[in-house]
Amino acid sequence: MLRDEFDFIDAVRQRALKERGGGLLTGIGDDAAIFRNRADRDIVITADLLVEDIDFRRAYTPPCLLGHKALAVSLSDIAAMGARPRFCLLSIGIPREVWRTKFLDHFYEGFFALADAHDVTLIGGDTSRTPERIIVDSIVIGEARRNRSVLRSGARAGDAIYVTGALGGAAAGLRLLEGGARIARTPKRTRTKLNTPQSLMLRQLAPEPRTTWGEFLGSASLASAMIDISDGLSSDLAHLCRASSVGAKIDAARIPIDLFVEESKITKDEAFKLALHGGEDYELLFTVRPRRIRQLPYEIGGVPVTRIGEITSEAGSIEIVQESRARILKPTGFTHFGRPK
Ligand code: ADP
Ligand code: MG
């Protein structure tokens, strides 16, 4: 049983010591961590905040999957920069009654499982108490070869638009959870035997960040622009287009819909909407110059990419072509504070 946060930090430190990333001089235990970066690398840093009842609900989120997701969302941001994740800092605020449970043991179990899988070393964080709700902040530090990071702003007219994996699963899973469905037991890595609802809920609760794709696209300079799909395809494509001062035309028939969504009771029309606007799939959306397209692999580690459209010169205009009719695609994905009317 943990007595105070110093015991806790020490336990976390012992676990974090198992992994020691190259370049790390001082990890957890001092006032700050120190790592030495290579001269031929750029440092890429990202932070993500998960607030209980806003970004997750305790009722349907197993603690170990919350630990996984806290790291996964930041790994996805690093992947979207075309960089490789190296170090992370994890800060957590929890109410006293949660401190007394096994919550943190399970949380860190999920967190370290994903960190180990991606060779990421925990080098610090902060621990505090909150009055009622859990709050988790994760920071990930990655590295990219000099000037190889991929920005949102690099897309040009004529570039092809691609997406990794498939879309809509996480939003469909959230629906099931909000409707009262639950993850049966803490699921292990193997997802093969899971039924459709369980798989969809896992897409929501335990997203797999596309780090291998991201690092490959960056180091090979294949992506001209990239973003991860956290708010939804329609919104994140709009973000990429705005940053690049371009427009886009996408083909509705080519949008890859999650197989489990297609297998579920959701209608075809709804499934399409979830793929287009539902968030939290954490797939990568990226653009490729026409002459580089043939260098792009069809898949990496079982994760395919699909070409869904093309960048146009009409800044701000995002069109979707469905049954040979084009219409304007409005971003309708997730926002915390709504959209201006
Ligand atoms: P300070 O008051 O100087 O912030 P702390 O006692 O909070 O000191 O932290 C001591 C060390 O423990 C630091 O290296 C810090 O990064 C690390 N640490 C604190 N909380 C966590 C946590 N939840 N996960 C990982 N490292 C942590
Ligand atoms: Mg502190």
Features:
341 residues, alpha+beta, 8-stranded mixed beta sheet, 4-stranded mixed beta sheet, 14 strands, binds adenosine-5'-diphosphate, binds magnesium ion
Structure description:
It is a single chain. The protein is of the alpha+beta class and 341 residues long. The structure holds adenosine-5'-diphosphate and magnesium ion. Adenosine-5'-diphosphate binds next to α1, β4 and β5.
Task: Give the structural class.
Answer: alpha+beta
**Percent helix:** 25-40%
Integer average pLDDT: 94
Compute the number of helices.
Answer: 10
> Roughly how many Å apart are the termini?
52 Å
Largest sheet geometry: 8 strands, mixed
Radius of gyration: 20 Å
- Compute the number of strand runs: 14
**Globular, elongated, flat, extended or rod-shaped: what is the shape?**
globular
- The arrangement of helices and strands along the chain is HEEEHEHHEEEHHHEHEHHEEEEE
**Low-confidence spans: pLDDT under 50, at least 5 residues?**
none
Beta-strand content bin: 25-35%
Ligand catalogue: adenosine-5'-diphosphate, magnesium ion
Oligomer: single chain
